[in-house]
Amino acid sequence: MNAMTEVTTAGETRQADPVRQMEFEERMVGALNEAALMLMLSLGHRSGLLDALAAAGPVDSVGLAEAAGLQERYVREWLGAMTVAHVVELDAGSGRYRLPAEHAALLTRTGDANLAAMAQYIPLLGAVEDDVLACFRDGGGVPYHRYGRFHEVMAEDSGQTVLPALTDHILPLVPGLTDRLRAGIEVLDIGCGRGLALMQMAAAFPDSAFTGLDLSADAISWAQAEALRRDLHNLRFEIRDLRDFDVTAPEAEFDLVTTFDAIHDQARPLAMLRGIRRALAPDGVYLAQDVNGSGHHHGDRDHPLGTLLYTVSCMHCMSVSLAQGGEGLGAMWGREMAQRHFREAGFGQVETHELPHDSQNAYYVCRP
Asked: pTM value?
C-alpha cells in the first residue's frame, strides 16, 4: 500500500498515513481471525473436544470424534480451524493431531486456568447483537431472560477467579472473619447467581448460616437443586428483586454480607447498597468484589482485559440494568465511583484491595 488515501473526517478531507493504515489493517485482519478462534474455542470447550484431545494424545479426526462422542465431519473442520490458528499441532505424515501441554494448561478443565471457558462470552453476547442494536437506536435495555446461558458462564468464570481464592485470600482480607465463620454467624450473598461461592463457604463453615438472593429464577432453581445434592442444610436461596432493598432489607440481621460482581448491573445499585447497610449487624462487615476499572476511558487503555470488559458491559451489564429502568452503571464504573457509592450508602470505613492473581477485580471491605 503506497498510494495516499484521502478520507473525510469532521468535514475535513485528509490524507491517511499509508504506514499507519497498513498496520491497522493488519491488526483488524488479525482481530477477525482471533474472534473466529474464540467461537471455535467455545465450541471446543462446550463439546468436550479440547479435553478429549488433551487426554487422547496424538489422534486422527476419527479417533477424536469417537473419544468425544461427536460427528467426525464437524470434528475434522474444527481441527482445521485449531490447526491454522496454531492452537493444535498436526503431523501431516500420520494425520494425527495433538494439543501441546502448554496449550492444554490454559484450555482444558484440568489445566491451570481455562481460558476456553472465557471464550464462551463471545458467542453468548453475539446472540443478543440485534437486541442491543435496537437499544442503540431506541434506548432501553435487554432483559436478563434474553441471555440464555449467562449465569452458567458466569459461574464457570467465578469458578476460576473467586472460588480458588475465596478461603485463602478473599475472606482473610477481613481480619478475624474466618474465625467468626467457624464459630457461627449469619451470612447474606446478594446477586448470588448459581450460588457457588455460598456453597463453598457453607461447606467450609457448617456452623454458620448462609442466604443467597438473586433476581434470576433459573439461577436460583439451579442453586437450590445443587445445594440439596451437596446436602448443605445451612444454606437457603430466594428469588428477590433488589430495587427496593433499601426499604425491604431486614434490619441488623447479618454479620457478613457479600457481593461477587453483582453491584454494577443492578437497576438501583445505591438502593441495594443502602439495603446492605441496613441489613448489617452493628459489628458486621460487607465484602464486595467488582470489576477493577478506573472509571475513565483514558485510565483503562492499559487494562489487560479492557476491551473485553467494556464489551461485556455494553452487551450485558449496562443493558440489563437499563432494561429495568435502572442507572446502567456498566461493568467499568470504576473504583472512584464504587467508593463514592459505598460512602453514600452509609459505610464509614471503606478499604480497597487487589489480589496478585486477579487483575480483573477489586475487593472492598466496608464497615458501618
From this structure: 0.88
